[in-house]
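Onboarding guide, step 5: your first structure request.
Type a short instruction followed by the sequence, for example:

Predict the 3D structure of this protein.
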Amino acid sequence: MKALSKDPHSRFASVQEFARALEQAAAPPVGTLTCTYCGHSESVISLAWSPNSRYIVSYVEDRVHIWEATTGHKTFTFERDPYASPLVPWSLVAWSPNGKSIAFYAEKTIRIWDLVVGRQTFAYPEQSEKVDSVVWLTDGFHALSKIEDGYGKKIKFWNLLGDRSIVCHAFWEIYYPICSPDGKFIAGNLSSYSGNEDDGYEPVNGGVIVWSATTGNEVLDYWCSDNSGGNLLTWSPDSRYIASADGDFQVWDVITKRQVIAKDVTMNIDAISWAPNGKYIAYVDGEGDIQIWDITTGSTISTYRGHMYKNNKGGYTLSADNVAWSPDSRRIASTGYTDNTVHVWDATTGDNAVICRDHPFSKQIQPFNHLVGWSPDSNFIVTATRNEDESKDCTVQVWDALTGNISYTFREHSGKVDALAWSPDGKYIATAGDDKTVRVWVAPSFT
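The system replies with C-alpha cells like these:
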C-alpha cells in the first residue's frame, strides 16, 4: 500500500491526499442508481436540488413534490385544486439559503414549508396582487408582485416575515419585474401600446426601469429599440449590471448609471447568459452567432459560429440556440437547434471546441431541444435530448468537457428525458421525464 511504503517519497504527500484516496476507493461506480422516485402520476417537467444537496423538488403541471434525494422519502406534496388556476412556474419556488425550508406561491397564497420538522410554518393567503416572483435573501423571505390597479403601473416588494414593503411607480405598464441577486434593486420592462381602438392594442416594449428595493425610488431608466419581440432582462451575479435585449442589446451599470454596452441587432436575441464571475456576458442572436462581451472594456472578445452547417440550397445556416457557462467561467457549452450537437469551447477565444454528438438520431438535421448541465467542478457536462416529436432517445450522456469523450451513458429511463440537474455537492445527477420517474444516480465527480 502507498500509505505503508518504506520509501517516504512513495507515500502520500499529506493527510488530505490520503483522505481523498480513501474516499475515491470507497466511491460507488459512476451511474449507480441510488434512488428512483415514483411519486408522480404524470410526466415530470422540471426539478431542482436544495442548496445542501439533501432534497429535490420535482414539478408537474398541477403538483409539486419535495423529497429526500437518496431515499425517495416524500417530505411534502402540494396538489392544487383542479378547478383553480395552474400551479406557478419555477420563478415562484425558492429554497432558503441553508436548504432546510422551501417557499412557493399558488392559489393566491404564499407558503413556507420547514423540511426538518415536516410542516408548514408560514402562510400568507388571499393576495390581491399577482405575485411575480419569490426570493430568499439574507434578511428574510421576500415577494415581488405587480399591483393590479387597472393600469399595471405599480409593483410591490415586501419582506413577508418582517412585514415591511415598498411600492415602485412607473408611467407605463410594468412587465416581468425581477429582483437583483443581492436584493438591493428591482428592474422591470416598461410597455406602451400600439394600434387603434378598432383593431385592438398590442404591447410594445418601451424601455427598462430600475428602482431601489429599499426606498422604491427610481435609480435608472433607459429606452430600448423595439423589434416586436419579448424583451429579455437579466441581472449580473454581483447585482451591479442590468442587461436587456430586444431590438438592441444593452448593459448598464446601476451604480454609476453608465451605459457599458450598446449594440443594435438585426434579429431578435434568443438568449442572454452571464458568466458566473460577472466579468463576461454572452448572447445568441437570431442568426445563431454567439457573442461574448467583456464588461470591463465594453467590447466583444469572441464570436462563435461553430454550429454552422451547409443547407440543401448551398448556403450556410447558423443554428445555436442557447449557452451554458461552466461554473469557473472559462468555458461555454452551446446547443445547436438544427445540427443536434453540444459544443464546448473556450469562452474568451472561441477556440478548443469539442463536439458532443453521440446521442441517438443526433446526426439528423431536425430540431432537438438539448438539456445541458455542468458539474460543479467544471470538468463534466451532462446532456439529454428533448424532442418535440416522439424521439427514441431516452439516454443521458455524461461527457468529459476537455476531451469530448463520453464518460458514462445512463439508460434507465423508458421515456424521453425532460429535466436534469447536478447536485450542488457534485456527487449525484437527477434526471426525470416522460416515464413519470425521477432517478438519482452517482456522478463521475462523486469524490
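Each response can be followed by summary notes, for example: Residues 246 and 353 are 29 Å apart (CA to CA).
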